[in-house]
Amino acid sequence: MDMALPIVNATTTVLARVSAAFNAPLARAVVFGVHIDGHLVVEGLLIAVIVFQLSRKSYKPPKKPLSEKEVDELCDEWEPEPLCPPIKEGARIEAPILESAAGPHTTIDGKEVVNFASANYLGLIGSDKITDSCVGSLEKYGVGSCGPRGFYGTIDVHLDCEAKIANFLGTPDSILYSYGISTIFSVIPAFCKKGDIIVADEGVHWAVQNGLYLSRSTVVYFKHNDMASLASTLEKLTRRNKRTENIRRYIVVESIYQNSGQIAPLDEIIKLKEKYRFRVILEESHSFGVLGKSGRGLAEHYGVPIDKIDIITAGMGNALATDGGFCTGSARVVDHQRLSSAGYVFSASLPPYLATAAVSAVNYLEENPSVLANLRSNVALVHKGLSGTPGLQISSHLLSPIVFLKLKKSTGSLTTDLDLLETIAEQALKEDSVFVVASKRSTLDRCKLPVGIRLFVSAGHTESDISKVCSSLKRISASVLSDHV
Fold first, then answer.
1. pLDDT higher than 60, residue 8
2. For residues 328, 334, 337 and 338, what is the CA-based torsion angle, rounded to 10 degrees?
3. 219 near 211, Cβ under 8 Å?
4. In whole angstroms, how far apart are CA 244 and each of 27, 198, 240, 270, 309?
5. CA nearest 174: which of 17, 296, 4, 8?
6. What is the rounded CA–CA span in Å between residue 79 and residue 69?
7. Is the model more confident about 271 or about 74?
8. d(CA 431, CA 113)
9. How many Cα atoms within 13 Å fall on the side-chain side of residue 79?
10. Whether 222 contacts 201, CB under 8 Å
C-alpha cells in the first residue's frame, strides 16, 4: 500500500500537466463554431488509436515444429481415458456354469441339481421330437444362414415358422427375429418416433426400456399394473390437449412382467385404449405358450379378440425352448418392419434349425394341450409349498410360471436386499442342489420394483422337485433372514 501511493500521485500529476498543456494554447480555439478544448483533443486521439489497433492484423508467432524428442516426451506423458469405468467390488457376476441341457434337472460342477432357474415352461428342452427336427434341419440347411432376410438370408423354414405362428395366434401375418431380446427393442423404434407419446408400465424389463429409449419418444410411466394410475395418466395427457390428437400414442405393457410375475389386466387396458384412442404394444415373452386354454397368450386368457391388440411381440427362448423372437399383427404392421426394423433388416436371419424347432414346439403344444394343465398344477404346488416362507412373500400371480419371492421387510438398500437374496440362492445350490436365481439389476435398468428370487416353474418338474425347492428355501431363508423376519 505504501509503495502504490507514490505511483498514484505521480500518475495524477502527469495527467494534470498533459491536460493543462492542451488546454492552454487551445482554450480560445473555435473551429466551425465549435469550441475545442484540450479534453476533446485527447479523446479524439484515443479514438484514432483504438480504430488503428482494431484494423491491424492480429499477430501470430511463427509455428515451430516439435522435435522428435519433444513428441516422444509428450507421448510418454499422455494417459488415455479408460474405455469403461472400473468394475466396483461386488458388481462382478460369477454365475454357475451348466454342464448339461437346462432341463428340469441339469448338471453344475459335476453334480446334478434341480433347475428352477431356466424358463423352460413346457419342459421341451431335451425333447426327442424337438431334437430330431433340429437334426433333420441341420442335415438339410447347415447351421447358419450367413445373410439378413432381405439379402439372400430367407429360407423356406422361416416362412413356414412365420405362417405357423400367425395361424396359431389367429393373426394375418408374423415376422421372425434372430434374437429374442432384440425383438421388442427393434419393434418399438420401428413404429414410435420423436414427438410420439408412449405410456409404459414402470415395471417393464430392460429390453422394453431400451426400446423406449431408442424411439426418442416422450415416455410417461404409470404405476406398476395399476389401472387407476394408467387411466389418470391417459386422462392428463389427452384432456383439453389438441396437440395429442394429431400425434401417435401408444401403451406399452408386458403380459407377464419379468420383474414381478404379475399379469397385465388386458381387458381393462383395451377399454382404456379405445376410450382414449391409443395403440397397444404387448410383450408376450413369458405368456406365449403358457396363458390361455390352448397357450395362445394373454388375449385368449381374457377372451379379448386378438385384433384389438395392435402389435404383439415375444421371444421364443422360453415356452418354445428355441431362440429368436417374433412380432405378429396386421399385414401392414409386419410389412413395415421388413424395411424399418433394425433387428430384422441388419441381422443375419435366424438359423434354420431354430425356426424348425419353433414349428415343432408349436405343433407339440397343439397336439398336447394337457401340458398346460401340468404346468398350472405345478405352479399351484409351488405357491402352496412356499406359503409362510420366513422373511419372504410371493408377489406373483397364481397363473404366472414366474414365481416371484420378495422380502417381506426390505432393508431399505437395494444392494443389501440383493446380497441377502443371493446368499439364499447360493446356499440352496451348495447345500441342497437346488438352482434358483435372484433378480439382478443392471446399472442401465431403470425399474424401481423390489428385487426378489425368481423361480421358473416347468411342466417337467415333478412333485418331488417342487417339494425339494420349497423345503430348501424355507429352511435357508429362516436362517439367513432371522434378523429380518
1. no
2. 120
3. no
4. 76, 11, 9, 19, 21
5. 296
6. 18
7. 271
8. 11
9. 1
10. yes
- Between CA 40 and CA 102 the distance in angstroms is 96
Dist. CA 232–CA 224, nearest whole Å: 13
d(CA 351, CA 155): 9
- Comparison of pLDDT for 357 and 27, the residue scoring more: 357
The owner of cell 516439435 is 66
The pLDDT-based confidence of 1 (bands split at 50, 70, 90) is: very low
Using DSSP's 3-state secondary structure scheme, residue 115 falls into strand
The pTM score is 0.82
Q: What is the DSSP string of 378-417?
A: HHHHHHHHHTT-TTEEE-S-TT-SEEEEEESS--S-HHHH
One-letter identity of residue 228: A
Question: Rounded to 5 degrees, what angle do the CA atoms 385, 391, 397 make?
Answer: 50
Element (H, E) at 298: helix 298-302
CA distance 217 to 197: 6
Q: Residues 6 or more apart from 473 whose CB is under 8 A from it?
A: 386, 389, 392, 405, 424, 428, 434, 436, 453
pLDDT at 342: 93
Q: What's the rounded Cα separation, in Å, for the pair 262 and 327?
A: 22
Average pLDDT (479-484) is: 84
Share of the chain above pLDDT 90, in %: 73
Q: Decide if 263 contacts 255 (C-beta within 8 A).
A: yes
pLDDT reading at 341 higher than 60: yes
Under 8 Å between Cβ of 130 and 451: no
CA–CA distance, 265 with 255 (Å, rounded to integer): 8
419, exposed or middle or buried, with CB in 10 Å at 0-12, 13-18, 19+? middle
C-alpha cell at 39: 479534453
Over residues 114-135, the mean pLDDT reads 95
What is residue 66's three-state secondary structure? coil
Kindly report the length of the chain. Answer: 485
Residue 265 predicted with pLDDT over 60: yes
pLDDT in tens, 280-329: 999 999 999 999 999 999 999 999 999 999 999 999 999 999 999 999 99
pLDDT digits (tens, 9 = 90+) for 429-458: 999 999 999 998 887 888 989 999 999 999
Give the separation between CA 344 and CA 338, rounded to whole angstroms: 7
- Would you call 353 exposed, middle or buried from its count of C-beta atoms within 10 A (0-12, 13-18, 19+)? buried
